[in-house]
């Protein structure tokens, strides 16, 4: 196991859930970018893209307070085909809107408990989001692979 | 400088050129994935995606022999809007097809010497390539960020 305690200690509670979500979604052949910005002022915890270009947004909540203070999540609905909450097993899930998807997750993985209905993006929005996801992900990858290069300075 | 000699020593000559190409293209707001597989049996050294979704393929050649033994490059033309060769300054550039683009590069950066004509991809192909680029890049990023996760096992 390379899952050291020191590694998980560096992450915030919401980031630990996000890591588990990314592992879970990978097993569904959905690939993720964390902290994706679909439009100015919005920052999704996780955006995932599926084999047919499906775009799923997952917001990770580590506590009741974390959820109650989120005033932006409805804005994300316009930028994804499905919207999920991801919470740890202690979270009071009755707080969450029943029409949203629901994932239980911790730092090591998770499970999809409820699928939301699909609200398919229009073609132009999907195209723009897929392009932005491709470019943002490539920039992020380049910054990690070549930390002395220009992408790491952005 | 974090560009240590030990870092560059780990890369093959073609990979060093590719690193410089990625730095160069980043300065043009094109973001890259190395060793992109557009279709079975094809592996581009660098695929780059621009702000309007432009797809540029760059093949990196470190020597005459490296170029002469490449039997696949014409297959890449069907998967990009522009095709470039990237070579180091010692390369005999007269060998290269005049209609291709030309980049001079080393491990630290480069310069675009010649733009090829644009041969725009059809919409369906562009859509498929952009989706594959987004997903492959996200999978690669996840493997780097979370080496204990499932993506690192692929």
Folded structure, characterized:
The structure is a homodimer of 154-residue chains. In chain A, strand 5 and strand 6 form a beta hairpin. The model of chain A has no long low-confidence stretch (mean pLDDT 93). Chain A has a 6-stranded mixed beta sheet. By secondary structure, the first copy, chain A, is of the alpha/beta class. The first copy, chain A, has one domain: Trna Endonuclease, Chain: A, domain 1 (3-Layer(aba) Sandwich), CATH 3.40.1350. Helix content of chain A is 34%, strand content 24%. At the A-B interface, helix 2, strand 1 and helix 5 of A face helix 2, strand 1 and helix 5 of B.
Helices and strands of chain A: which structural class?
alpha/beta
Nearest-integer average pLDDT of chain A: 93
CATH architecture group name of chain A: 3-Layer(aba) Sandwich
Question: From N to C, what is the helix and strand string of chain A?
Answer: HHEEEHHEEEH
Query: Helicity of chain A, in percent?
Result: 25-40%
Query: Strands of the biggest beta sheet of chain A: in what spatial order?
Result: 1-2-3-4-5-6
Number of domains of chain A: 1
Biggest sheet architecture of chain A? 6 strands, mixed
Count of alpha/pi helices of chain A:
5
User: The CATH topology of chain A, please?
Assistant: Trna Endonuclease, Chain: A, domain 1
Oligomer: homodimer
For the record, the CATH class of chain A is Alpha Beta
Rg of Cα set of chain A: 16 Å
Low-confidence stretches of chain A: none
Q: Identify the biggest protein-protein contact and residues per side.
A: A-B, 34 and 34 residues
Number of strands of chain A: 6
Q: Beta-strand percentage of chain A?
A: 15-25%
